[in-house]
Design goal:
The chain has six helices and 19 strands. It is of the alpha/beta class and 310 residues long. Helix 1 (14-25) runs parallel beside helix 6 and helix 4 (154-163) runs parallel beside helix 5 (183-191).
Length: 310
C-alpha cells in the first residue's frame, strides 16, 4: 500500500515553503511537490527590500534558499514531479504526478500565479533590469527617474499613482484612448501632475545591454512606431507591466470553488472541500506579495493540523 502523508503541499514558492516549515515543525508527515525548482516567480526578483527581517542585498534566490533550508530542517520531504490530476474528495486525497501517485489526509494548493507579460522581444531578458511587475517591490529603485506603466485598469492606475511617490515622471501606456479603471481612480491620476498618458499605444520591443535602455512603441491606430530612449543622465528607465495575472489553477477547475480562475477560501485558507486548503497568489485576494504568501502558507498548515486533530 502506498504511503499516506499527513499533508501534501503542491508548489514550493513562498506559500508552499512557509506551509512546509509550519507543518514540519508541528511534526506532520509532509511532502512538498514541485515540478522544477523551488521559488515560484520570486526567484526572478533581483532585489527584495520590503520583506521583514531580510538581509542587506536580499534577492529572490537568497530568500528562497533560506526558506528551503528551514523546510529541510523541519524534515519536510520534497518530490520533483509534475502534477497532472487530483482526487480531492474523501478522507484520503490522491495527487497524481507524471512519475508516481501520492496519497495524503490533507492537501494545500500553492501553485501561485504569474503576471501576464507584454509578450514583446526583450521583455524576458530585461526582467529585474528595468522591467518589473510589482511597484511595491521595485519602485524605490527608480527614485527620481522616469517610469512607464503598461495597462489601463484599476491595478495599473493605482500602481502608477504609487510610483509617483518615487519617480519624477510616470507615463501610462494604454492601447485604448481611455482608461478602464474606476472613475474615482481615474480622477486621481488625471489630477496628478507627475502622470502623463500615451494613448492608443503598445510596446513592441524592449532593448538594452544588461539594463533597459530603450523601447519601441507602436500607435495601434496609425501603425507608426517610435523609439523612446532613456534620458542620458539616468541611463535607464522603468517599465512596470500591469495587464493582469494568470493564476496557475488549471488543474483545479471543477475540483474546488473558483472565481475568475482564482481559488476561493475563507480567512483560514479552507476551500469548499474538507481537508483541502489553498495559499498564496492563486487565491482571490487583495495583495500578492511574498509576505502575504508566506502568511497564507502558515495559516493553511496550522489549519491542516487542526483538521487532522479533529
Amino acid at each position: 500500500m502506498s504511503k499516506v502523508y499527513d499533508l501534501i503541499i503542491i508548489g514550493a514558492g513562498p506559500a508552499g515553503l512557509a506551509a512546509g516549515i509550519y507543518a514540519g515543525r508541528s511534526k506532520l508527515d509532509t511532502l512538498i511537490i514541485e515540478k522544477e525548482k523551488a521559488g515560484g516567480q520570486i526567484v526572478i526578483t533581483s532585489e527584495i527590500e520590503n520583506y521583514p527581517g531580510g538581509i542587506e542585498g536580499e534577492t529572490g534566490p537568497s530568500l528562497i534558499g533560506r526558506m528551503v533550508q528551514q523546510a529541510d530542517h523541519f524534515n519536510a520531504a520534497k518530490a520533483y514531479d509534475t502534477v497532472i490530476d487530483l482526487e480531492l474528495k474523501g478522507e484520503i486525497k490522491k495527487v497524481i504526478g507524471k512519475n508516481e501517485e501520492y496519497l495524503a489526509k490533507t492537501v494545500i494548493l500553492a501553485t501561485g500565479a504569474f503576471p501576464r507579460p507584454i509578450g514583446c522581444p526583450g521583455e524576458k531578458e530585461l526582467i529585474g533590469k528595468g522591467v518589473s511587475y510589482c511597484a511595491t517591490c521595485d519602485a524605490s529603485f527608480f527614485e527620481d527617474m522616469e517610469v512607464y506603466v503598461v495597462g489601463g485598469g484599476d491595478s495599473a492606475v493605482e500602481e502608477a499613482l504609487y510610483l509617483t511617490k518615487f519617480a519624477r515622471k510616470v507615463t501610462i501606456v494604454h492601447r485604448r484612448n481611455e482608461l478602464r479603471a474606476a472613475k474615482t481612480i481615474q480622477d486621481k491620476a488625471f489630477a496628478n501632475p507627475k502622470i502623463e498618458f500615451l494613448w492608443d499605444s503598445v510596446i513592441t520591443e524592449l532593448k538594452g545591454d544588461g539594463i533597459l535602455e530603450s523601447m519601441v512603441v507602436k500607435n495601434v491606430k496609425t501603425g507608426e512606431e517610435s523609439e523612446i530612449i532613456a534620458p542620458e543622465e539616468d541611463g535607464t528607465f522603468g517599465v512596470f507591466v500591469f495587464v493582469g495575472f494568470v493564476p496557475q489553477t488549471g488543474l483545479f477547475v471543477d475540483k474546488v470553488q473558483m472565481e475568475n480562475g482564482y481559488i476561493l477560501t475563507d480567512d483560514d485558507m479552507k476551500t469548499d472541500i474538507p481537508g483541502v486548503f489553498a495559499a498564496g497568489d492563486l487565491r482571490k485576494k487583495s495583495l500578492r506579495q511574498v509576505i502575504t504568501a508566506a502568511a497564507d502558507g502558515a495559516i493553511a498548515a496550522t489549519q491542516a493540523e487542526r483538521y487532522l486533530e479533529d
